[in-house]
């Protein structure tokens, strides 16, 4: 049976004999194991960087053989021994030299990629911890790493592209590559027809337009734009509520702005909650529109997950949401970093509510066509095809 080695980009944190692991990673890993017809080996790096959406597990909870590597420890040929296929992270700079190791061990190398050069440069430019000179050096390093990345991709047996930006940027390097959306919405947790009907009836009857957003509260995610947008909506007389779920460096600032402004009755900041048991039910039953202020063009599973909950989306004009909005007609695009534009868009939608309910139906339809199980099955079949080459 073919052996699959996974070298993901996400790390784990060692805590008192157990491992803290990202929730999304764990669910994806389980799906890998359910679909792949053979043994799985997982190469996991230990680090101390926070994992806000995570839980404690043991090695035995992982569906395969686990190898723990230090944060700076290179992957060696011994880690890949006996592998038929290696699915590596095209986003990690320390995995760009795997082709010679795979050639040595006879494994077929596939890279999964989601971040693009513009996103990496924007991330470096938005880092508040670095001086202007340091940001310039970071940009130069990013450009050099991009050359290494493209060389590595050309040497690989195949590529998998998570989201529109990655496909547009790297698709020409592998016309037979696998284009997918990395969400976690199974069909059985998506919005039901009854919920869609109840939401539409409540929304069309009037009342506030219920906005919600979730994710890491960091500059690269545009979290600094949430409160200016809320203030602009308040000034424009929009009847709205906004629920923010997440954690990050900007959370204290957002909490302070809510407490000191006139927004206490409109905006609520929530700690991260369990995705399936808490966040999904809220989106399905207590929200009308998902608001995304993302400044980076990462594929962000938040779009597809919100769509699976039957929500129309208002998002900023980044490299992911622009084509997704055009292809799905499930929401609206607003200029990046312009809170007045967000307020104007929401005001128009509150006045033309049938547009929101129609977009919500299209949103759910698209999510159903790209459910969690189907997307992972296509990815695993792509790996299986490469293992047989």
Explain what you see.
43% of the residues are buried. The chain is globular, with a radius of gyration of 21 Å. It has 15 helices and 16 strands. It has 389 residues and is an alpha/beta fold. The strands form 3 sheets. A 7-stranded parallel beta sheet has the order 6-4-1-7-8-9-10, sandwiched between helices. Strands 13-12-11-14-15-16 form a 6-stranded parallel beta sheet, sandwiched between helices. It has a 3-stranded antiparallel beta sheet with strand order 2-3-5. The chain has 2 domains: 196 residues, Rossmann fold; 182 residues, Rossmann fold, CATH 3.40.50.2000. It starts with a strand and ends with a helix. The model has no long low-confidence stretch (mean pLDDT 94). Helices cover 44% and strands 19% of the residues. Pfam families: Glyco_trans_1_4 (PF13692). GO terms for molecular function: glycosyltransferase activity.
Report a brief summary of the structure:
The chain is an alpha/beta fold and about 400 residues long.
Key features of this structure:
6-stranded parallel sheet, 15 helices, single chain, 389 residues, alpha/beta, globular, 2 domains
Q: Report the CATH C-level class of the largest domain.
A: Alpha Beta
How would you sum up the major sheet? 7 strands, parallel
Distance between the termini: 15 Å
**Strand pairing plus helix content: what structural class?**
alpha/beta
Tell me the total number of β-strands: 16
Low-confidence parts:
none
- Form type: globular
Count of alpha/pi helices: 15
**Helicity level, as a percent range?**
40-55%
The share of residues in extended strands comes to 15-25%
- Overall number of domains: 2
Q: Please give the CATH architecture of the largest domain.
A: 3-Layer(aba) Sandwich
**Overall pLDDT score:** 94
Protein name: Glycosyltransferase
EC number: 2.4.-.-
Organism: Paracoccus benzoatiresistens
GO molecular function: glycosyltransferase activity
């Amino acid at each position: 049976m073919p052996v699959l080695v996974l070298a993901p980009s996400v790390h784990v944190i060692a805590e008192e004999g157990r491992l803290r692991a990202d929730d999304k990673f764990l669910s994806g890993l389980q799906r890998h194991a359910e679909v792949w017809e053979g043994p799985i080996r997982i190469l996991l790096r230990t680090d101390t960087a926070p994992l806000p959406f995570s839980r404690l597990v043991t090695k035995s909870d992982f569906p395969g053989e686990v190898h723990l590597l230090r944060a700076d420890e290179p992957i060696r040929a011994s880690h890949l021994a006996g592998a038929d296929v290696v699915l590596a992270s095209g986003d990690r700079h320390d995995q760009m030299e795997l082709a010679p190791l795979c050639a040595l061990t006879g494994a077929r190398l596939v890279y999964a990629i989601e971040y693009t050069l513009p996103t990496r440069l924007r991330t470096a430019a938005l880092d508040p911890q670095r001086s202007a000179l340091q940001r310039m050096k970071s940009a130069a390093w990013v450009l050099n790493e991009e050359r290494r990345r493209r060389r590595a991709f050309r040497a690989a047996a195949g590529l998998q592209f998570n989201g529109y930006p990655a496909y547009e940027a790297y698709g020409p390097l592998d016309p037979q590559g696998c284009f997918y959306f990395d969400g976690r919405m199974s069909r059985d947790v998506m919005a039901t027809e009854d919920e869609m009907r109840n939401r539409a009836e409540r929304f069309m009857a009037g009342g506030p337009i219920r906005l919600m957003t979730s994710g890491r509260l960091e500059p690269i995610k545009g979290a600094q734009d949430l409160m200016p947008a809320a203030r602009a909506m308040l000034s424009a007389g929009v009847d709205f509520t906004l629920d923010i779920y997440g954690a990050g460096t900007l959370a204290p600032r957002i909490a302070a702005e809510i407490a000191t402004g006139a927004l206490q009755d409109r905006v609520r900041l929530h700690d991260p909650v369990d995705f399936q048991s808490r966040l999904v039910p809220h989106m399905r039953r207590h929200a009308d529109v998902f608001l995304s202020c993302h400044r980076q063009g990462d594929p962000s599973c938040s779009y597809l997950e919100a769509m699976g909950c039957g929500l129309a989306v208002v998002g900023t004009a980044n490299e992911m949401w622009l084509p997704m909005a055009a292809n799905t007609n499930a929401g609206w695009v607003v200029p990046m970093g312009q809170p007045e534009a967000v307020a104007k868009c929401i005001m128009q939608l509150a006045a033309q509510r049938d547009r929101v309910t129609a977009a919500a139906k299209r949103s759910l339809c698209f999510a159903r066509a790209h459910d969690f199980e189907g997307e992972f099955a296509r990815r695993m079949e792509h790996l299986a095809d490469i293992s047989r080459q």
